[in-house]
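Following up on my earlier thread - several people asked me to post the actual chain instead of describing it. Fair enough. Here it is, all 237 residues.
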Amino acid sequence: MRKQTLQSMSDYLPERLPASLRRERVSLTRFDGLGREGVEAARNLSPRKSPALATRMPRGLYASAFGSGIPHGMAFFDGYLFFARGTRLYRTTDGRSVSDMGAVSDTDKLFFVFGDRLYVYPDKLYVEKGGGMPGYVELDTGIIEQVSFQGSQATLPEGLLWTALGFRPGDGLRVLNADDSDPAPEGYYRIAALRGREATVVGAFPSVHVSNARLKCTVPTLERACVSGNRVYGVIG
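Reply from S.P.:
Thanks for posting it. Predicted structure:
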């Protein structure tokens, strides 16, 4: 057998690869981007085409129209993009149709998801998963007559339901005395379970009362929040 010596790869490869196999390198000094803003100096990039960088999707909706005022933040929840601008909260799915979710304060927002709710601070609003308008985290029933406190049970009078008043299991319950006829067991409790007119709290009320009481759910004004498991850790001040 005769041995052949490979002199050069050029003896075996074509002078130019087929177009389908070629990759041309192009140096870019300007990124034109999408929408009205442009993205010079390599701003406005996102990892949505990972592992390659790509310009982010247009957000002209957030940066223009829909009222006046300063953008105060945005969050993605339940398939919707929620964003605050000026004194309004908006929701959209496609960037074209927008729903006005109501009034908010004209300040930067803290959005965080806990359980099946999106919370909006410092306004202390929440949005339920599955749609609907925002509700208030804090509750105040005003004076309710003839509320029964016995053991770990707090029972509302006929015709009132805890859930209809806005309370949920896990909420903090503050009991305030409304008069001195039969003082209510004032203090802070945590609701363990709700069933119709009855609420079961963690621990027990100190004594038996049938009182006129004011029931509240209050939460601190958080500046930062972190969700871990079944707890929310917040920072104040």
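Confidence is low (pLDDT under 50) at residues 33-41. That should answer part of your original question.
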